[in-house]
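Technical note accompanying the year-one report. For the benefit of new consortium partners, we illustrate the data format agreed upon in the data management plan: each record pairs a sequence with a C-alpha coordinate string. No post-processing was applied to the example shown here.
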Amino acid sequence: MHSFSDRPFLVIWEVTQACDLVCVHCRAAAQTWRHPLELSTDEGRRLIDQVAEMQVPVFVLTGGDPLRRPDIYGLVEYASQRGVRVSMTPSATPLLTEEAIREIKRRGLARLAVSLDGSKAEIHDAFRGVAGSYTRTLEAIAWAREAGLPVQINTTITRRNLADFDALANLLRGLDIVLWSIFFLVPTGRGRLSDLITAEEFEMIFEKIFRLVHRVSFDIKTTEAQHFRRFILQQTAQIRRRGGHFPPPRSEPPRRGDGIGRAPRGLNDGKGFAFVSHTGEVYPSGFLPLSAGNIRRQPLAEIYQRSPLFVALRDSSQLKGKCRECEFREVCGGSRARAFALTGDPLAEEPCCIYEPKVHHPERRLEELSVRDALPEGI
Protein backbone atom coordinates (compact mmCIF):
# COMPACT_ATOMS: atom_id res chain seq x y z
CA MET A 1 0.00 0.00 0.00
CA HIS A 2 1.42 3.40 -0.98
CA SER A 3 1.81 5.59 2.12
CA PHE A 4 1.58 9.29 1.37
CA SER A 5 3.47 10.01 4.59
CA ASP A 6 6.59 8.24 3.33
CA ARG A 7 6.80 9.21 -0.32
CA PRO A 8 4.83 11.01 -2.98
CA PHE A 9 3.00 9.19 -5.73
CA LEU A 10 3.74 11.99 -8.18
CA VAL A 11 6.72 14.35 -8.48
CA ILE A 12 6.71 17.11 -11.06
CA TRP A 13 9.89 18.95 -11.95
CA GLU A 14 9.53 22.32 -13.62
CA VAL A 15 12.73 22.08 -15.61
CA THR A 16 12.47 25.67 -16.87
CA GLN A 17 10.06 28.58 -16.97
CA ALA A 18 11.19 29.53 -20.45
CA CYS A 19 8.39 29.23 -23.01
CA ASP A 20 7.42 30.86 -26.30
CA LEU A 21 3.69 30.74 -25.54
CA VAL A 22 1.79 33.35 -23.51
CA CYS A 23 -0.96 31.24 -21.94
CA VAL A 24 -3.62 33.29 -20.20
CA HIS A 25 -3.94 30.82 -17.32
CA CYS A 26 -0.23 29.93 -16.87
CA ARG A 27 0.48 29.18 -13.22
CA ALA A 28 4.17 29.95 -13.78
CA ALA A 29 3.75 33.13 -15.83
CA ALA A 30 6.43 31.63 -18.08
CA GLN A 31 9.06 33.89 -19.66
CA THR A 32 10.84 33.94 -23.01
CA TRP A 33 14.24 33.39 -21.38
CA ARG A 34 15.75 30.74 -19.12
CA HIS A 35 16.44 31.69 -15.52
CA PRO A 36 20.18 31.82 -14.70
CA LEU A 37 19.59 29.88 -11.45
CA GLU A 38 17.80 26.92 -13.03
CA LEU A 39 18.90 23.54 -11.75
CA SER A 40 21.91 22.40 -13.75
CA THR A 41 22.15 19.12 -15.61
CA ASP A 42 24.08 17.56 -12.72
CA GLU A 43 21.56 18.87 -10.18
CA GLY A 44 18.75 17.49 -12.33
CA ARG A 45 20.41 14.09 -12.36
CA ARG A 46 20.75 14.17 -8.58
CA LEU A 47 17.04 14.98 -8.33
CA ILE A 48 16.28 12.03 -10.61
CA ASP A 49 18.46 9.84 -8.38
CA GLN A 50 16.36 10.86 -5.37
CA VAL A 51 13.11 10.19 -7.23
CA ALA A 52 14.41 6.76 -8.16
CA GLU A 53 15.53 6.00 -4.60
CA MET A 54 12.11 7.02 -3.26
CA GLN A 55 10.50 4.75 -5.86
CA VAL A 56 8.10 7.47 -6.96
CA PRO A 57 5.67 5.88 -9.44
CA VAL A 58 5.14 8.95 -11.67
CA PHE A 59 7.70 11.62 -12.60
CA VAL A 60 6.76 14.51 -14.90
CA LEU A 61 9.04 17.01 -16.63
CA THR A 62 7.15 20.25 -17.17
CA GLY A 63 7.73 23.97 -17.63
CA GLY A 64 7.52 26.48 -19.20
CA ASP A 65 8.56 24.39 -22.14
CA PRO A 66 10.94 21.51 -21.35
CA LEU A 67 12.19 21.56 -24.95
CA ARG A 68 13.80 24.93 -24.24
CA ARG A 69 16.47 23.00 -22.27
CA PRO A 70 19.16 21.58 -24.59
CA ASP A 71 19.85 18.79 -22.08
CA ILE A 72 16.24 17.57 -21.90
CA TYR A 73 16.85 14.50 -24.05
CA GLY A 74 19.75 13.42 -21.85
CA LEU A 75 17.67 13.96 -18.71
CA VAL A 76 14.88 11.77 -20.08
CA GLU A 77 17.40 9.08 -20.98
CA TYR A 78 19.02 9.26 -17.54
CA ALA A 79 15.65 8.93 -15.80
CA SER A 80 14.73 5.98 -17.99
CA GLN A 81 18.04 4.27 -17.21
CA ARG A 82 17.36 4.76 -13.48
CA GLY A 83 14.04 2.96 -13.87
CA VAL A 84 11.90 6.09 -13.51
CA ARG A 85 8.70 6.20 -15.58
CA VAL A 86 8.87 9.69 -17.01
CA SER A 87 6.26 11.83 -18.75
CA MET A 88 6.80 15.25 -20.32
CA THR A 89 4.59 18.25 -21.11
CA PRO A 90 6.15 20.24 -23.96
CA SER A 91 4.57 23.37 -25.40
CA ALA A 92 3.12 23.34 -28.91
CA THR A 93 5.77 25.53 -30.54
CA PRO A 94 8.07 25.01 -33.54
CA LEU A 95 10.41 23.12 -31.18
CA LEU A 96 7.86 20.31 -30.99
CA THR A 97 8.69 18.62 -34.27
CA GLU A 98 8.15 15.09 -35.49
CA GLU A 99 11.89 14.51 -35.14
CA ALA A 100 11.88 15.80 -31.56
CA ILE A 101 9.05 13.45 -30.63
CA ARG A 102 10.78 10.46 -32.17
CA GLU A 103 14.02 11.32 -30.38
CA ILE A 104 12.38 11.78 -27.00
CA LYS A 105 10.63 8.45 -27.47
CA ARG A 106 13.96 6.80 -28.38
CA ARG A 107 15.49 8.22 -25.19
CA GLY A 108 12.89 6.47 -23.06
CA LEU A 109 9.92 8.83 -22.56
CA ALA A 110 6.90 6.82 -21.38
CA ARG A 111 4.17 9.37 -22.17
CA LEU A 112 3.78 12.69 -23.96
CA ALA A 113 1.29 15.14 -22.46
CA VAL A 114 0.09 18.07 -24.54
CA SER A 115 -2.46 20.75 -23.75
CA LEU A 116 -5.68 21.16 -25.70
CA ASP A 117 -8.10 23.71 -24.31
CA GLY A 118 -10.68 23.94 -27.06
CA SER A 119 -12.30 22.01 -29.86
CA LYS A 120 -11.53 24.84 -32.29
CA ALA A 121 -8.42 26.82 -33.11
CA GLU A 122 -9.92 30.13 -32.06
CA ILE A 123 -10.64 28.86 -28.53
CA HIS A 124 -7.34 27.05 -27.98
CA ASP A 125 -5.11 29.67 -29.60
CA ALA A 126 -6.75 32.40 -27.51
CA PHE A 127 -5.75 30.40 -24.43
CA ARG A 128 -2.19 29.98 -25.62
CA GLY A 129 -1.67 33.49 -26.93
CA VAL A 130 -0.09 32.29 -30.18
CA ALA A 131 -1.83 31.58 -33.49
CA GLY A 132 -1.18 28.11 -34.85
CA SER A 133 -0.83 26.40 -31.48
CA TYR A 134 -4.00 24.35 -32.06
CA THR A 135 -2.74 22.98 -35.38
CA ARG A 136 0.69 22.23 -33.92
CA THR A 137 -0.93 20.37 -31.02
CA LEU A 138 -2.97 18.12 -33.31
CA GLU A 139 0.13 17.45 -35.41
CA ALA A 140 2.11 16.52 -32.29
CA ILE A 141 -0.60 14.08 -31.21
CA ALA A 142 -0.51 12.39 -34.61
CA TRP A 143 3.29 12.26 -34.65
CA ALA A 144 3.40 10.75 -31.17
CA ARG A 145 0.89 8.05 -32.03
CA GLU A 146 2.86 7.21 -35.21
CA ALA A 147 5.99 6.90 -33.07
CA GLY A 148 4.19 4.59 -30.64
CA LEU A 149 4.32 7.13 -27.83
CA PRO A 150 1.19 7.22 -25.62
CA VAL A 151 -0.49 10.62 -25.48
CA GLN A 152 -2.18 12.41 -22.60
CA ILE A 153 -4.30 15.53 -23.14
CA ASN A 154 -4.32 18.27 -20.51
CA THR A 155 -7.25 20.71 -20.48
CA THR A 156 -7.79 23.61 -18.11
CA ILE A 157 -11.43 24.46 -17.48
CA THR A 158 -12.17 28.17 -17.16
CA ARG A 159 -14.95 30.52 -18.09
CA ARG A 160 -13.30 30.86 -21.53
CA ASN A 161 -13.98 27.25 -22.59
CA LEU A 162 -16.75 26.09 -20.27
CA ALA A 163 -19.36 26.00 -23.04
CA ASP A 164 -17.00 24.04 -25.30
CA PHE A 165 -16.62 21.05 -22.98
CA ASP A 166 -18.92 18.68 -24.90
CA ALA A 167 -17.39 19.53 -28.27
CA LEU A 168 -13.88 19.02 -26.92
CA ALA A 169 -14.83 15.66 -25.40
CA ASN A 170 -16.18 14.55 -28.77
CA LEU A 171 -12.96 15.64 -30.49
CA LEU A 172 -10.82 13.65 -28.06
CA ARG A 173 -12.75 10.46 -28.74
CA GLY A 174 -11.15 10.37 -32.17
CA LEU A 175 -7.56 11.13 -31.15
CA ASP A 176 -6.44 7.74 -29.72
CA ILE A 177 -5.26 9.09 -26.38
CA VAL A 178 -4.68 7.20 -23.11
CA LEU A 179 -5.72 9.88 -20.61
CA TRP A 180 -7.65 13.13 -20.46
CA SER A 181 -6.36 15.16 -17.51
CA ILE A 182 -8.86 17.90 -16.70
CA PHE A 183 -7.46 20.79 -14.69
CA PHE A 184 -9.70 23.25 -12.90
CA LEU A 185 -8.33 26.77 -12.77
CA VAL A 186 -6.48 28.00 -9.72
CA PRO A 187 -6.12 31.80 -10.03
CA THR A 188 -2.36 32.06 -9.64
CA GLY A 189 0.34 33.25 -12.02
CA ARG A 190 -1.50 34.64 -15.05
CA GLY A 191 -4.72 32.89 -14.04
CA ARG A 192 -7.44 35.43 -13.35
CA LEU A 193 -10.09 35.23 -10.67
CA SER A 194 -12.62 36.39 -13.27
CA ASP A 195 -11.96 33.21 -15.28
CA LEU A 196 -12.76 30.91 -12.35
CA ILE A 197 -16.05 29.05 -12.80
CA THR A 198 -18.63 28.96 -10.01
CA ALA A 199 -19.21 26.13 -7.56
CA GLU A 200 -22.45 25.31 -9.39
CA GLU A 201 -20.57 25.12 -12.69
CA PHE A 202 -18.07 22.74 -11.09
CA GLU A 203 -20.99 20.41 -10.35
CA MET A 204 -22.22 20.74 -13.94
CA ILE A 205 -18.81 19.68 -15.30
CA PHE A 206 -18.61 16.90 -12.70
CA GLU A 207 -21.87 15.51 -14.06
CA LYS A 208 -20.50 15.56 -17.61
CA ILE A 209 -17.27 13.83 -16.56
CA PHE A 210 -19.19 11.23 -14.56
CA ARG A 211 -21.22 10.35 -17.64
CA LEU A 212 -18.10 10.16 -19.81
CA VAL A 213 -15.84 8.05 -17.58
CA HIS A 214 -17.25 4.68 -18.68
CA ARG A 215 -18.22 5.69 -22.21
CA VAL A 216 -14.81 6.53 -23.63
CA SER A 217 -11.76 4.42 -24.35
CA PHE A 218 -9.36 6.68 -22.46
CA ASP A 219 -9.04 7.32 -18.74
CA ILE A 220 -10.12 10.63 -17.23
CA LYS A 221 -8.65 12.27 -14.16
CA THR A 222 -9.14 15.65 -12.53
CA THR A 223 -6.60 18.06 -11.06
CA GLU A 224 -7.50 20.66 -8.42
CA ALA A 225 -11.05 19.29 -8.33
CA GLN A 226 -10.71 16.96 -5.38
CA HIS A 227 -14.43 17.28 -4.64
CA PHE A 228 -15.19 15.33 -7.81
CA ARG A 229 -14.47 12.27 -5.64
CA ARG A 230 -17.32 13.31 -3.35
CA PHE A 231 -19.53 13.76 -6.39
CA ILE A 232 -18.74 10.22 -7.61
CA LEU A 233 -19.61 8.72 -4.23
CA GLN A 234 -22.90 10.60 -4.09
CA GLN A 235 -23.88 9.60 -7.63
CA THR A 236 -22.90 5.99 -7.04
CA ALA A 237 -25.00 5.87 -3.88
CA GLN A 238 -28.02 7.17 -5.80
CA ILE A 239 -27.55 4.60 -8.57
CA ARG A 240 -27.34 1.74 -6.09
CA ARG A 241 -30.36 2.96 -4.14
CA ARG A 242 -32.33 2.75 -7.39
CA GLY A 243 -31.10 -0.81 -7.93
CA GLY A 244 -28.64 0.10 -10.67
CA HIS A 245 -25.10 -1.18 -11.19
CA PHE A 246 -21.94 0.87 -11.01
CA PRO A 247 -19.58 0.95 -12.72
CA PRO A 248 -21.21 -0.01 -16.02
CA PRO A 249 -19.13 -1.74 -18.71
CA ARG A 250 -17.21 0.53 -21.05
CA SER A 251 -18.97 1.34 -24.30
CA GLU A 252 -15.55 1.62 -26.01
CA PRO A 253 -12.59 -0.74 -25.47
CA PRO A 254 -9.80 0.72 -23.28
CA ARG A 255 -6.49 1.74 -24.83
CA ARG A 256 -3.36 -0.25 -24.08
CA GLY A 257 -1.60 1.09 -20.98
CA ASP A 258 1.87 2.63 -20.93
CA GLY A 259 3.00 1.51 -17.48
CA ILE A 260 2.28 4.85 -15.80
CA GLY A 261 0.03 4.08 -12.87
CA ARG A 262 -2.98 5.92 -11.52
CA ALA A 263 -2.92 7.67 -8.19
CA PRO A 264 -4.48 6.09 -5.12
CA ARG A 265 -7.52 7.76 -3.65
CA GLY A 266 -7.02 10.91 -1.64
CA LEU A 267 -4.13 12.46 -3.60
CA ASN A 268 -3.94 16.17 -2.89
CA ASP A 269 -1.54 19.09 -2.79
CA GLY A 270 1.33 17.94 -0.56
CA LYS A 271 -0.44 14.64 0.06
CA GLY A 272 1.15 12.23 -2.40
CA PHE A 273 2.23 15.16 -4.56
CA ALA A 274 5.40 17.27 -4.71
CA PHE A 275 6.47 19.95 -7.16
CA VAL A 276 10.09 20.98 -7.69
CA SER A 277 10.56 24.40 -9.26
CA HIS A 278 13.14 25.40 -11.86
CA THR A 279 15.34 26.74 -9.05
CA GLY A 280 14.87 23.74 -6.74
CA GLU A 281 12.13 25.04 -4.44
CA VAL A 282 9.77 22.27 -3.32
CA TYR A 283 6.06 23.12 -3.29
CA PRO A 284 2.98 21.06 -2.41
CA SER A 285 1.90 21.63 -6.02
CA GLY A 286 2.67 23.97 -8.87
CA PHE A 287 -0.50 25.87 -8.04
CA LEU A 288 0.36 26.35 -4.34
CA PRO A 289 3.39 28.68 -4.24
CA LEU A 290 4.51 28.03 -0.66
CA SER A 291 8.01 26.60 -0.47
CA ALA A 292 8.81 23.87 2.05
CA GLY A 293 12.52 23.81 1.27
CA ASN A 294 15.05 23.59 -1.55
CA ILE A 295 16.69 20.45 -2.91
CA ARG A 296 19.97 22.34 -3.12
CA ARG A 297 19.97 22.36 0.68
CA GLN A 298 17.90 19.30 1.69
CA PRO A 299 17.04 15.94 0.15
CA LEU A 300 13.61 15.75 -1.45
CA ALA A 301 12.57 12.92 0.87
CA GLU A 302 13.40 14.95 3.96
CA ILE A 303 11.42 17.95 2.72
CA TYR A 304 8.43 15.83 1.76
CA GLN A 305 8.35 13.73 4.94
CA ARG A 306 9.27 16.30 7.59
CA SER A 307 8.52 19.86 6.51
CA PRO A 308 5.76 21.42 8.66
CA LEU A 309 3.87 22.51 5.55
CA PHE A 310 3.68 19.05 3.98
CA VAL A 311 2.92 17.39 7.32
CA ALA A 312 0.04 19.82 7.95
CA LEU A 313 -1.42 19.33 4.49
CA ARG A 314 -1.51 15.56 5.03
CA ASP A 315 -3.40 15.95 8.30
CA SER A 316 -7.08 16.41 7.44
CA SER A 317 -7.89 17.32 11.05
CA GLN A 318 -6.12 20.64 10.42
CA LEU A 319 -8.52 21.64 7.65
CA LYS A 320 -10.80 24.56 8.41
CA GLY A 321 -14.38 25.54 7.69
CA LYS A 322 -16.73 22.97 6.26
CA CYS A 323 -13.83 20.87 4.91
CA ARG A 324 -12.91 20.03 8.51
CA GLU A 325 -16.45 18.83 9.23
CA CYS A 326 -16.99 17.05 5.93
CA GLU A 327 -17.48 13.29 5.94
CA PHE A 328 -15.58 13.12 2.65
CA ARG A 329 -12.46 14.93 3.88
CA GLU A 330 -10.20 11.86 3.68
CA VAL A 331 -11.04 11.08 0.04
CA CYS A 332 -11.41 14.73 -0.96
CA GLY A 333 -9.95 17.41 1.28
CA GLY A 334 -10.65 20.20 -1.21
CA SER A 335 -8.11 22.05 -3.32
CA ARG A 336 -5.49 23.40 -0.97
CA ALA A 337 -4.09 25.52 -3.81
CA ARG A 338 -7.43 27.17 -4.58
CA ALA A 339 -8.07 27.75 -0.89
CA PHE A 340 -4.73 29.54 -0.64
CA ALA A 341 -5.26 31.53 -3.85
CA LEU A 342 -8.62 32.88 -2.67
CA THR A 343 -8.07 33.19 1.09
CA GLY A 344 -4.32 33.19 1.73
CA ASP A 345 -4.71 30.09 3.91
CA PRO A 346 -3.87 26.66 2.42
CA LEU A 347 -5.97 24.95 5.10
CA ALA A 348 -9.13 26.98 4.48
CA GLU A 349 -12.24 25.33 3.05
CA GLU A 350 -12.55 24.65 -0.69
CA PRO A 351 -14.01 27.88 -2.14
CA CYS A 352 -15.72 26.17 -5.11
CA CYS A 353 -17.68 23.38 -3.41
CA ILE A 354 -21.44 23.59 -2.94
CA TYR A 355 -21.64 20.60 -0.60
CA GLU A 356 -22.72 21.13 3.00
CA PRO A 357 -21.47 18.39 5.38
CA LYS A 358 -24.17 16.26 7.00
CA VAL A 359 -22.75 16.66 10.50
CA HIS A 360 -26.24 16.51 11.98
CA HIS A 361 -27.31 13.45 9.97
CA PRO A 362 -24.90 10.62 10.89
CA GLU A 363 -27.16 7.96 9.39
CA ARG A 364 -26.92 9.65 5.97
CA ARG A 365 -23.15 9.92 6.34
CA LEU A 366 -22.83 6.17 6.84
CA GLU A 367 -25.10 5.47 3.89
CA GLU A 368 -22.99 7.51 1.49
CA LEU A 369 -19.63 6.36 2.84
CA SER A 370 -20.68 2.72 2.40
CA VAL A 371 -20.06 3.09 -1.34
CA ARG A 372 -16.51 4.41 -0.95
CA ASP A 373 -15.06 1.26 -2.52
CA ALA A 374 -16.68 2.32 -5.81
CA LEU A 375 -14.42 5.36 -6.12
CA PRO A 376 -12.08 4.84 -9.10
CA GLU A 377 -8.37 5.34 -8.60
CA GLY A 378 -6.74 8.38 -10.14
CA ILE A 379 -9.78 10.65 -10.05
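Partners are asked to follow this layout when depositing records. The chain has a mean pLDDT of 90.
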